[in-house]
């Protein structure tokens, strides 16, 4: 019997085989009377499995098939699955953070030299472009973004991984100054525009009450859809070949004050 973790990895691998580049999907933003950004973020909430939903083509609301008999309005049925390809990526310098103890030099004449240990750990965060989209599974999103969108950076990016680090360096604090070490981490953001792959789309051709099913989004000939404003941003440290964060360690100091007990 496979463990849940192994089954999850196998599921992601199966979906990864069908992932298309984000640029190959059709951008439906502006082509519908409703908010397609919210639609894509509601459908693609971390799930990669096959799903069947009802979509209100006036408002973009998404409902379960179990609601079929309790709804009014123009609802159509869509069956398909989501993938999370990389749309873009960029690096940036993260905010400074103190990573050592504070060294106080109360002397009025001589420098104070200390070997100080700086330490910390890598970080990972995930954000979304549409607040209030329904039912985001943040654990699943982290797994799928790491496996699909971030696959090309698996050896140079700390996303979905936590690694501790420590470094000892010499710190010289001038007279009547307080010194410490800060880090300036190099960070990478990988953006994913989720893609919904349509397997079947069904609507009622009123007034004839005849159900029609096609293999494309709303019968328009394209089956892979995205909405440009719907995206997830995965952010984490850039790492070197040994998995350590790429960063600058810099000395900072200030004048002593009454709180420093000199």
Task: Describe the overall structure.
The structure is a single chain. The protein has helices spanning 4-16, 36-43, 138-149; strands spanning 26-27, 51-56, 62-64, 75-83, 86-93, 97-98, 103-105, 112-121, 124-128, 164-173, 177-192, 195-204, 211-214, 224-226, 232-237, 247-255. The chain contains three helices and 16 strands. Mean pLDDT is 86; it is low at 1-17.
Based on the model shown, name its key terms.
about 260 residues, mainly beta, 7-stranded antiparallel β-sheet, 16 strands, disordered N terminus
Give the arrangement of secondary structure elements:
Blueprint: H1 4-16, E1 26-27, H2 36-43, E2 51-56, E3 62-64, E4 75-83, E5 86-93, E6 97-98, E7 103-105, E8 112-121, E9 124-128, H3 138-149, E10 164-173, E11 177-192, E12 195-204, E13 211-214, E14 224-226, E15 232-237, E16 247-255
Parallel strand pairs: 1-14
Antiparallel strand pairs: 2-3, 2-4, 4-12, 5-11, 6-11, 7-11, 8-10, 9-15, 11-15, 11-16, 12-13, 12-14
Q: Counting H and I runs of at least 4 residues, what is the number of helices?
A: 3
Q: Profile the largest sheet.
A: 7 strands, mixed
Q: What is the helix fraction of residues, given as a range?
A: 10-25%
Q: What distance separates the N and C termini?
A: 66 Å
The stretches of 5 or more residues where confidence is low (pLDDT under 50) are 1-17
Specify the overall morphology.
elongated
Order of helices and strands: HEHEEEEEEEEHEEEEEEE
How many DSSP-defined strands? 16
* Estimated radius of gyration: 26 Å
Strand content: 35-45%
* Overall pLDDT level: 86
Structural class: mainly beta
